[in-house]
Amino acid sequence: MRRLLLLRHAKADRPPSMLDFDRPLAKRGQAAAVSMGKYLRDEKLLPDLVLVSPSKRTEQTWKSIEPYLGDPESRRDRRIYEATVATLLKVLHEVEPESRTVLMIGHNPGFEDLAQILIGHGDRDGLQRIGLKYPTAGLAIIDFSHGSWAELGRKEGRLERFVTPKSLGEGEDD
Fold this sequence. Notes:
It comes from Microvirga alba. It holds the Pfam family His_Phos_1. This is Histidine phosphatase family protein. By secondary structure, this protein is α/β, with parallel strands linked by helices. It has a single domain, classed as Rossmann fold (3-Layer(aba) Sandwich), CATH 3.40.50. 30% of the residues lie in helices and 22% in strands. The chain contains five helices and seven strands, in the order βαβαβαβαβαββ.
């Protein structure tokens, strides 16, 4: 079995005249990222590999979560920033077979689109919520029964659950 933990970055600030790539997390986003890190730890959702977009807000999300996850291998991959579904799938297809659980931290609309393409069954409520909105710090936990990341395809995943800061009692989703 393979497990994909698809985490959208936490809430970011929008300072005037700042490039999108350089936007930092808002205070609320910092708190949400820590909550998601604790959730991952408490639920034993520990990745073997973490793939992170190199934008400032995704890097800061990862740095807030990292202390709760032990010491997984982490990689920055520029392709995740503003990625299409095809690009995100290519990144996942390249993951080594030794990695059973992968945490990917990135952006919308790519993550929402990727989740909808990969998920074929599972948590109906979670799938419906993903279709309505994939908020900042939203986490889709998607399981695959086959043995290789290179084989990931449409509707082959099972949504185990979809967790957001709001579902954890951490305020409103963005």
